[in-house]
Amino acid sequence: MNTSHHDDSARWSGWLAAAQQGDGAAYGRLLAELAPVARRMAVKAWGRNEDVEDVVQDILLTLHTIRHTYDSSRPFLPWFAAIVDHRVKDALRKRRRHQGRETAIDEIPETFLARPANTKTTDAMDLRKAVAKLPPGQRQAVELLKLQEMSLNEASTASGQSVAALKVAMHRAVKTLKGLLGP
Question: How confident is the model at residue 172 (pLDDT cuts 50, 70, 90)?
């Protein structure tokens, strides 16, 4: 390690030790100096990439989260380099996972369905008639929760039913309405 890196590492170690004791100014100086170092280290391992700033932020967040684990009797730079290495490897794994699931599309082909989608329409009158056919508990749940747009707690207070009972009634009402109105 050259003298410059040794001096930096010693300075950073001192600042982090002070930050562990609650010195916010020392912690601010540490982060201000480490951000460009983290960026250079990430670019070296990651390459020039639009996501490198996300990796740098992840490195600094990790440093913040685990700063209490640093032992000031040990060298700072290897400890920090391990954080950078782990975060860069995590980002590379994440990128590979995403690339494995994504397909580049140069041109979106036009497709036509054999029959138009969503051709069945239900008008308001049909829906009102179907709601009127529901059992009283289900009808009340639909009226309070969907038509009057009450929250579950408000509907529970208004109807005297528990939140769980309203959820069950609403679920059954939707199922019944699907049957009445058809597919």
Answer: very high
- pTM of the complete model: 0.51
d(CA 111, CA 108): 9
**Cα distance between residue 25 and residue 126, in whole Å:** 68
Which residue ranges does the chain devote to CATH 1.10.1740.10? 3-100
**Mean pLDDT value of segment 134-154:** 89
Q: CATH 1.10.10.1800: does it fit domain 124-181?
A: no
pLDDT, tens digit, 9 for 90 and up, residues 80-110:
999 999 999 998 888 888 777 766 666 666 6
Q: How many CB atoms lie within 10 A of CB 6?
A: 12
Residue 145 Cα distances to 21, 37, 97, 158, angstroms: 54, 55, 41, 11
Instruction: Identify whether the C-beta of residue 166 lies closer than 8 Å to the C-beta of residue 159.
Output: yes
Do the beta carbons of residue 33 and residue 12 sit within 8 Å? yes
Structure confidence at residue 36 as a pLDDT band (50, 70, 90) = very high
* Distant-in-sequence, close-in-space partners of 90: CB < 8 Å, separation ≥ 6: 58
Domain 3-100, classified CATH 1.10.1740.10, yes or no? yes
User: CA-CA distance, 173 to 183, in Å (whole number)?
Assistant: 15
